[in-house]
Specification:
Number of helices: 4
Strand content: under 5%
Radius of gyration: 16 Å
Helix content: over 70%
Number of strands: 0
Amino acid sequence: MRLPGPLHVFNEGLAFLLELAALAVLARWGWGSADDLALRLLLAVSAPALAAVVWGLFAAPKARIRLPLGGVLAVKAVVFGAAALALQELGRPSAAVVFAVVALLNTALATADRRAAMRRGV
């Protein structure tokens, strides 16, 4: 299924916002996960940094290590799933469900759109 131009642009923009939101949520989770200031800083920086490195290596459009589609989807599921779990841990269960559902729908639409584009040679 190829998305119409405006919907394709919207979905790609939403994907980027979801990625940024995941990093922000992981940072917030890290900050709230410890009492010690040094540990708070470490977790607030390292959790989103790890997610960003893994995403950049395996799931980004220009990833350094090309994985088959299933691998890319697994990486996205881990990062988005970690963000949803972090929201749950932060006491935001409704936000966790909304984030997970929107990320799932966005990824499914993007995957279907890319597959259709590849079949058409676009």
